[in-house]
Amino acid sequence: MADFCPRFPQYLTGRMADRQLRKKDGRVKVVQYYSRHCGACQEAHPKIEALQREFCGDIDVIKISVDEKPNEPLADAAKVKYLPTVAVYRNGEQLARTTGDKDYEKFSKMVQRQLRKLAKESKK
Fold first, then answer.
1. Cβ–Cβ < 8 Å for 61, 71
2. Are 28 and 59 in contact (CB under 8 A)?
3. Nearest Cα to 29, choosing from 71, 63, 68, 74?
4. Whole-angstrom Cα distance, residue 20 to residue 89?
5. What is the pLDDT of residues 83-123, one digit of tens each?
6. Distance CA 114, CA 89 (A)
């Protein structure tokens, strides 16, 4: 676990979000696509933030509002049709996703699977 754990996720827009998602740094990135008008998204927010605490130092948590015009191309590229959509990325590639969920256990297992795969790859 890292010495420093960011308390809050990164809220990114436009090019900055795109750059973070495409970055080939080996980091696992958990991205929540949300709308401020979406009740299920609001219910999912604290659960996504809890992931950041659980996997502190192992993942980056990024939130992207589909309400903001600069984020529309990102949501389109990720084929976001329903909210909330939570996706896991690494090295610019979407590895897993779930849509419409608010279940913390499901989010956590999705992240754990990707971190296990990463650990296996690094042992090779």
1. no
2. yes
3. 63
4. 10
5. 999 999 999 999 999 998 788 999 999 999 999 998 888 87
6. 9
Q: How many CB atoms lie within 10 A of CB 113?
A: 13
Beta strands 10-11 and 28-34 are unpaired
Instruction: Compute the half-sphere exposure of residue 39: CA atoms within 13 Å on the CB side of its CA.
Output: 0
3-state secondary structure of 89: strand
pTM score over 0.85:
yes
* Residues constituting the chain: 124
Cα–Cα distance measured from residue 54 to residue 40, given in angstroms and rounded to the nearest whole number:
21
Instruction: Give strand ranges (E) for 15-92.
Output: 28-34, 59-65, 85-90
CA distances from 123 to 73, 77, 95, 110 (A): 36, 32, 20, 21
98 vs 110: CA distance, rounded Å:
9
Per DSSP, 114 falls in state H
For domain 10-123, give the CATH superfamily: Glutaredoxin (3.40.30.10)
